[in-house]
Amino acid sequence: MNHVKDSIEDLCRHFGTDPGKGLTDEAAAVxxxxxxxxxxxxxxxxxxLQKAVHHLKDFTSLILLxxxxxxxxxxxxxxxxxxxxxxxxxxxxxxxxxxxxxxEMGAEKALEALRKMSAPMTVALRGGLxxxxxxxxxxxxxxxxxxxxxxxxxxxxxxxSSGLKxxxxxxxxxSVPAEKSADAVIGDNAPLGDRLNMLFxxxxxxxxxxxxxxxxxxxxxEMGKIxxxxxxxxKERTPLQQKMNALGKIICFVALGSAAALFLLQVFDASIxxxxxxxxxxxxxxxxxxECLPIIITITLAYGVLMMARKNAIxxxxxxxxxxxxxSVVCSDKTGTLTMNRMTITRVWAVGHEPxxxxxxxxxxxxxxxxxxxxxxxxxxxxVDGVEAEIGDPTETxxxxxxxxxxxxxxxxxxxxxxxxxxxxxxxxxxxxxVHKSNxxxxxxxxxxxxxxxxxxxxxxxxxxxETARRVHDEFxxxxxxxxxxxxxxxxxxxxxxxxxxxxxxxxFAGFVGMIDPPRPESKEAVRTAKEAGIKTVxxxxxxxxxxxxxxxxxxxxxxxxxxxxxxxxxxxxxxELAAGISDYSVYARVSPxxxxxxxxxxxxxxxxxxxxxxxxxxxxxLKAADVGVAMGSGTxxxxxxxxxxxxxxxFSSIVHAVAEGRRVxxxxxxxxYSLIACNISEIFTMxxxxxxxxxxxxxxxQLLLINVIADGIPDLCLCREPMEKDIMRRGPIDKNASVFxxxxxxxxxxxxxxxxxxxxxxxxxxxxxxLHPDFPPSHELGVTMAYVAVGWTSVMNILNVxxxxxxxxxxGLTTNRLLFFGVCFSTALIIGTAMLPPSITNHHGLLVNIxxxxxxxxxxxxxxxxxxxxxxxxxxxxxxxxxxxxxxxxG
Length: 892
What we know:
The chain is α+β, with helices and mostly antiparallel strands. It is built from 33 helices and 26 strands. The strands form five sheets. An eight-stranded mixed beta sheet has the order 8-24-23-22-9-19-21-20, sandwiched between helices. Strands 1, 2, 3, 4, 5, 6 and 7 form a seven-stranded antiparallel beta sheet that branches. A hairpin with a 5-residue loop joins strand 10 (344-350) and strand 11 (356-357). It starts with 7 loop residues before the first helix and ends with a helix. Residues 106-115 have low confidence and may be disordered.
């Protein structure tokens, strides 16, 4: 059955119902058993335990878990080994796991919000009697009655109606209620917004009354289909998650390979005991894995969340911070996002004059036209506790607002011309008429005012007024303005019969106004800034093609040579055809929720990182499907629950600020990787080369953990506060498929890691084989202490280097990021302190060391270590100077 085009008689016959009596309770129960209740299905969610198991399957978690178990085995089986290593490793695992689960616990609430929007009770005809029943009890075939203020409980075909209007903005995005009629003629493949003989679940009746036949319930309604899309749509991993996952696999491969190589180097050496070999393997695994990387990335993202919140962007899902920085396409809803979501009169025309902009000073005739419209309106604007509230039809509130802007109160007009009669608006006539008593006229006691569609107000077709009016009307229509006309007639006394034939004929035409939902003032600048940053903005809306195109041109989205496509044209395209031509289209009009998902996925198939903005239920599936969904703070709960980001000020320009912040976050994450990975690579080569040459491990697990987690980790945490580079919004978007080490970062890490490794090996060699002081003879333990301090200090000093990839640290200033400077000082002192602790335990070689396996050093050793520590600064500063010189030569 075609619920839109088939006749009411055929539909009633199909459902076995009587339009005058409805279903019987027994018949409804049978249908409910087969069709189910009028409710949405709930998506299954992971339990906390399932989330924990999922994250423990991560490669890096598995290696740390294995290292922890080996350390636990050694601590239990060998009294000489303490539980320190075990406790530290398992603490890191638990902290990382807790943060990951907490991040995911922001579970989707879209279905709950949809459920709340369903009308809890409704009036239905059952066996010829009007009954108030729960909306969930409705079945296809039920006959329901609705009036202004009712929420539509299910999709229904209108049987009869009077002055019916429904607010369908949550489904179609249109800011003006749709005029509904049982007699509307609907074309083939009409989009939702053009199905004027249908009412849709979740929409609000704003005017009139209706009797309707329920044709779809639950998940089969248009709202239910959106709920199904929300269940079916799965969000892809963010670019950062994909890159971190790839990095994690590389790290695990290197960790396993390094541990295996170390094991093979030692297993055939009879002088080395198996527990020591296992301990060295654990140390190697610890050396490879940047244990605090997940924590630092999470905190860096969290700081980005804080910074975005200060700019009116609330982040619901932390990875969205970085994803915004990678955005290359912003798919924006029109109504309420790019526009004000408030109908506004922009032009006024009065008979005998030329059209005038509404914000200018209006002449007497133009003010008279607006005042007549105000009298024939039932809307009002009230102020409660300093907050304005608009009550009534949006087109009428636009009239009242213009009067208010011209310092005329609607209440004053109503007092001067009290209303004595009204013929309500009718969707067939497309007119409404009110009759008022005039208190300022002596001879003409009453005035009848007719307001509505221009083509329905009778004007003498031969008159000059008619010719001019049609010309101005066409001009307004060409600017995508909604035209509202007004005419009037005077009476000495009220006519005996006040009907349409009497009141709406023989009128004097006054003029009309043109109104539109205007662009937000900041939208044009935001679109321009996005374009400078290499980001394409496209408009996706349920509104008409002409209106969407006019707004898009005004704010700079639709440029010369770019195309507009309608929902009907979009439906005729295959997914392949849409993807092939997706770059040509800048405006998508009259589209459905399914179309919006297709558009998002077509851009994603081209490698774009897509940000989708919206505020209605119709936007929710696309918000979830996009790489990052951005909902408006004033939007529906459904849209907010499906989004990653909520803009509290509904300001499109806030998206641009959020993109800049996302790019800053990504820059700082790369700086953290620069610091941590360079340190970890140097530890691998230090371990392997020293064991290869001298069959001794230069570092133990607890030293590596102290360096990686505390000494290196604390200053790296402070990198999240590094301010954004000045040119950050003049760069192109971050390539979705680019490696996290792109742009020469991999080579920088290799160079610095080599410097670290050389410094550490030199330190170990001097401590183990070179005599600098008679009271401090060379030994393996002295070499371990030198290697430990050398690795720790070089990595800490390098944190100052990574603050900028090009600028000298001396130009940036050591204290411009004070928290980082204090972190570097703390870590430097921590390494000194741990190395200078007095010996208190005996190691497995029978020698006295402190709990960090260090022994005292002479002043000469400390001076050498200072020289080794500043070596990375010298090398990296030289590298930066070379890069700056090369860029100057290229530009010059």
